[in-house]
Structure formats: structure tokens, C-alpha cells
């Protein structure tokens, strides 16, 4: 790419890198993948624009997220669906976040959970947990294989970590996150369906927000927010938050709109 790290350049350096990547991607004129069935909205087709930049120095993925890209393995993709732009990146300003009453109750239910952030490591207990989690979801979109589970972390060109959540030594959940100098990105979380009362998916996000505070990271990116998708609109429950518009500008979603979207 011919540009050094943006980690020390502050907001101006990060914005400059984002603009540089936007121009580079536009010049390439890359084709779209697909179409394939949309995983979020029924009876819709989806298409992706996929890039594999090199080198991926610190700050590159942050800039790509500001261009609506997500990571999958060594590649980065964003949606490019005909007639639809509902997949919008959502991020939480860590310093301003205040948990809701339900989120505070979730924390209280999980005071006995021990969380450890570390490098990704394959294990039979993780594969078994992943299988139980997918079996309880019943949506059939993922097969529960070891290859599929490894794909969450394998080949990543960024600093990818796993968060193991244990109760008395027993693995109850695993979160996957990508770290950037000024942001953390939530990748995936799977948990024991027998522990549903704990709301471990919510707890994972709350823990990541606190980890961002400990590290001095101003942003937690939660991936795509899809207002019309019940399984994605929950992200609007972490307030305040900002949503990336089709014009590339970040905008705060008013609390009333977030509540309507999250309950739709």
C-alpha cells in the first residue's frame, strides 16, 4: 500500500488512511461476489465486494470498517446488494456508554464468570460448545464443523483474540474479537444454550466495552446493524451508538429510534 502505520497519526491520520483506501478500492473496480441468499433479510439476495489488502499494518482494518467492511479470515468484505443498503456498521463510543437496566442485570447474573483474553487456540471443548450452540439456533446457516470454527480466527491478518468465559473452570462461552490501535471489533460469540438465562451474548459485549476502557480504545465496533432483522437489530440496544450511513458519515441513532428498531 505504500503507507506506514496510522496508529500514531490520531483521528486525522486515520481519516486520511480511510480516504486513501476508499480511492484505491474505487480505482480497482473489483467485481462483486454472488448473488447468494441474504443471511439477514428473508427472500433477499446478497452480494459482497471482497478485498485482500497487503500489508495490513495497524489501522488498516479500522479504516476498512469505516468503509463498511468486515473481516472473514484473511479477507475483508462489504455488502453491495442491488436495491438494498441495510447492512450498516454500528459502533459504540466507549467513554460515553451507559448500560441499560437490563444490561446491568445481565452483569449481576454473571459475577461468577471468569473471562480471559488470549490468542486463539483450538480445543475439543470449544468445538463441542460451538456445536451445541448451533444446534440450539436451528437456522441451518452454519454446519458446526471444526473447519468452520477455525475460519473465525485462522488466517487473520489482524490481531485476533479469543475471550474464554468460564464458571468454576467450565467453558460457557467464547467470544472472538479483532484488536486495532484505536478500536476493538466484535467478530462472533457462541455460548452454552443451557446457560441462556445468563444472556452471555450480551455479557460478551459488555465485557468487551470494559476491556476497551482498560486499554484506552475509544470505539467498539459491533459489525452490521440491520434494522429489519431481529437477530441483528439488538445491537441498537447499546447506547449511545453511531451508524455508518451510505454516504460514509457516522450518525448517532436517537434513543427512540433505537428502541423501535431493537424491538421490531
Write the layout of secondary structure elements.
Elements: H1 10-28, E1 32-37, E2 45-51, H2 60-65, E3 70-72, E4 75-79, E5 88-93, H3 101-109, E6 114-118, H4 124-137, H5 146-150, E7 159-167, E8 170-180, E9 183-191, H6 200-215, E10 219-225, H7 230-233, E11 242-244, E12 250-252, H8 255-263
Can you offer a commentary on this structure?
This protein is 31% helix and 28% strand. The protein is an alpha+beta fold and 264 residues long. It has a domain of 125 residues: Aminopeptidase (3-Layer(aba) Sandwich), CATH 3.40.630. The strands form two sheets. An eight-stranded mixed beta sheet has the order 6-7-8-9-10-5-11-12, sandwiched between helices. A four-stranded antiparallel beta sheet has the order 1-2-4-3. The longest helix has 19 residues. The chain is globular, with a radius of gyration of 18 Å.
Which key features would you list for this structure?
12 strands, single chain, Aminopeptidase, disordered C terminus, 264 residues
Amino acid at each position: 500500500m505504500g503507507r506506514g502505520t496510522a496508529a500514531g497519526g490520531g483521528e486525522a491520520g486515520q481519516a486520511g488512511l480511510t480516504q486513501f483506501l476508499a480511492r484505491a478500492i474505487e480505482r480497482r473496480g473489483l467485481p462483486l461476489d454472488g448473488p447468494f441468499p441474504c443471511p439477514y433479510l428473508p427472500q433477499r439476495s446478497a452480494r459482497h465486494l471482497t478485498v485482500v489488502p497487503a500489508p495490513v499494518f495497524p489501522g488498516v482494518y479500522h479504516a476498512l470498517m469505516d468503509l463498511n467492511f468486515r473481516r472473514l479470515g484473511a479477507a475483508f468484505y462489504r455488502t453491495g446488494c442491488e436495491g438494498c443498503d441495510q447492512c450498516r456498521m454500528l459502533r459504540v463510543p466507549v467513554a460515553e456508554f451507559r448500560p441499560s437496566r437490563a444490561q446491568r442485570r445481565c452483569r449481576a447474573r454473571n459475577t461468577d464468570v471468569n473471562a480471559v483474553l488470549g490468542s486463539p487456540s483450538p480445543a475439543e471443548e470449544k468445538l463441542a460448545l460451538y456445536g451445541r450452540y448451533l444446534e440450539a439456533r436451528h437456522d441451518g446457516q452454519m454446519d458446526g464443523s471444526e473447519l468452520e470454527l477455525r475460519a473465525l480466527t485462522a488466517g487473520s491478518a489482524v490481531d485476533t483474540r479469543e475471550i474464554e468465559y468460564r464458571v468454576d473452570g467450565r467453558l460457557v462461552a467464547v467470544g472472538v474479537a479483532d484488536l486495532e490501535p484505536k478500536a476493538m471489533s466484535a467478530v462472533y460469540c457462541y455460548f452454552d444454550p443451557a446457560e441462556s438465562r445468563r444472556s452471555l451474548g450480551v455479557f460478551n459485549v459488555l465485557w468487551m466495552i470494559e476491556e476497551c476502557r482498560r486499554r484506552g480504545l475509544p470505539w467498539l465496533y459491533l459489525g452490521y446493524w440491520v434494522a429489519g432483522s431481529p437477530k441483528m437489530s439488538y445491537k441498537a440496544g447499546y447506547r449511545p451508538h453511531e451508524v455508518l450511513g451510505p454516504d460514509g458519515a457516522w450518525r448517532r441513532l436517537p434513543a427512540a429510534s433505537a428502541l423501535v428498531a431493537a424491538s421490531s
